[in-house]
């Protein structure tokens, strides 16, 4: 049997030249857990066991849930954060544990913008009839965005002043410094799914008339500024990544050609890991089905230099499907989300199915599966 490409090693380039080595090309994408019951952004033993089990499962790069760079940027009050030192201390044992099991660990830095201060997808809260924006009585907070639009069906956000934009850029940089101290190997900047950065990118939400709105150059300015600020403080031997919504799938929205152009600019600013998701602004109008977002990754991969690490995500559930995506050069790796929630051993099973070197934790291997 030919060797599996999915289970071949790969390196995400870093400024220092050393690169971040990955044991295979199967990545755990960020997935919000909404378990921070204390509402203080501090990760819990849930994050340790949940992400730790993914390291046991054979993932090569494990990316945390969306982790807010500022308290007002949380999607819900149960999100994790990196806006203070207590949070840094709580992330440390988690990053150490993941690395001790052979995986690299990334943090998805995020700001929800107009989509902040919501109840989240919590069954107990939904069952109580609470959806959408958190009410004032329940501790809802002021939200901020590029513009104040009604596109999200949430309470109106405050359009950010230039000063607020500049402060926000600094929030990203400070969170990046904390991510370093917390022991993360990679930052994934959350520029997807209709959250704050995407709210600046998409003309469907960004209606500004100053230097942060209008032209492509203006709508992408906030992102360029925060990436430059992160890059200035992020160690040269650590990797920088981004997640895009490659498409709004809506007329007049952010399109794939915009993503390709912006991905090249991000590469020039030092970003080397690219994950291609889609949508998040307005009602979903895109395609569905197995691997439906793979063409977005393929378009970005084709436009970038060879050494970029481009991953495809979305309804990739099967080992052979994943192998085919990388063998045919559509992407350099895959992100496996929901399938991993059901089966944290997804990579180990896939490795076995594809005839690759077995990667079970030795404790499980003794069980002679
Ligand atoms: C997600 N997703 C997501 N995406 C993101 O960029 N940041 C996040 O924090 C989350 N949170 C989240 C929570 C849960 C429970 C799910 C299921 C999904 C999207 C996720 O990373 C992925 O892109 C999608 O799930 C599609 O991939 P799969 O699940 O089809 O492999």
TrEMBL record:
What Gene3D superfamilies does its record include? Aldolase class I
Keywords (A to Z) from UniProt: Flavoprotein, FMN, NADP, Oxidoreductase
Give the NADH:flavin oxidoreductase/NADH oxidase N-terminal domain ranges: 17-354
Q: Which cofactors are reported in the record for this sequence?
A: FMN
Q: Does the keyword Cytoplasm apply?
A: no
Return one GO MF term: NADPH dehydrogenase activity
| Pfam families in alphabetical order | Oxidored_FMN
Q: Which InterPro entries match?
A: Aldolase_TIM, OxRdtase_FMN_N, YqjM-like
Which PANTHER family does the record match to this protein?
NADPH DEHYDROGENASE C23G7.10C-RELATED
The protein in question is named NADH:flavin oxidoreductase/NADH oxidase
Q: Which organism is it from?
A: Glutamicibacter ectropisis
């Amino acid at each position: 049997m030919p060797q599996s490409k999915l289970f071949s090693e790969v390196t995400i380039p870093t400024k220092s030249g050393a690169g971040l080595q990955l044991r295979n090309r199967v990545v755990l994408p960020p997935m919000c857990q909404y378990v921070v019951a204390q509402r203080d952004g501090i990760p819990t033993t849930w994050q340790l066991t949940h992400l730790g089990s993914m390291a046991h499962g054979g993932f090569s790069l494990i990316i945390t849930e969306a982790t807010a760079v500022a308290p007002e940027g949380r999607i819900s009050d149960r999100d994790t954060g990196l806006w203070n030192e207590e949070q840094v201390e709580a992330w440390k044992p988690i990053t150490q544990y993941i690395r001790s099991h052979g995986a690299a660990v990334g943090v998805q830095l995020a700001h929800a913008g107009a989509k902040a201060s919501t109840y989240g997808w919590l069954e107990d809260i939904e069952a109580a009839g609470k959806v959408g924006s958190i009410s004032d009585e329940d501790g809802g907070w002021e939200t901020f965005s590029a513009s104040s639009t009604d596109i999200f069906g949430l309470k109106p956000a405050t359009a950010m002043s230039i000063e607020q934009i500049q402060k926000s850029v600094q929030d990203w940089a400070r969170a990046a410094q904390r991510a370093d101290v917390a022991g993360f190997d990679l930052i994934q900047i959350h520029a997807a799914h209709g959250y704050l950065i995407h709210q600046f990118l998409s003309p469907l939400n960004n209606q500004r008339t100053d230097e942060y709105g209008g032209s492509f150059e203006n709508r992408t300015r906030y992102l360029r500024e925060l990436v430059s600020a992160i890059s200035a403080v992020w160690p040269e031997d650590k990797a920088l990544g981004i997640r895009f919504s490659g498409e709004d799938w809506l007329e007049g929205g952010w399109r794939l050609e915009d993503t390709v152009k912006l991905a090249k600019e991000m590469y020039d600013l030092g970003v080397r890991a690219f994950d291609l998701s889609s949508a998040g602004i307005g009602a979903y109008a895109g395609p569905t089905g197995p691997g439906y977002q793979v063409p977005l990754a393929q378009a970005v991969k084709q436009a970038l230099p060879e050494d970029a690490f481009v991953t495809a995500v979305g309804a990739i559930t099967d080992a052979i499907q994943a192998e085919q995506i990388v063998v045919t050069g559509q992407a350099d790796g895959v992100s496996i989300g929901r399938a991993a929630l059901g089966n944290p051993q997804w990579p180990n099973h896939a490795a076995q199915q594809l005839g690759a070197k077995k990667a079970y934790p030795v404790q499980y291997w003794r069980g002679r599966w």
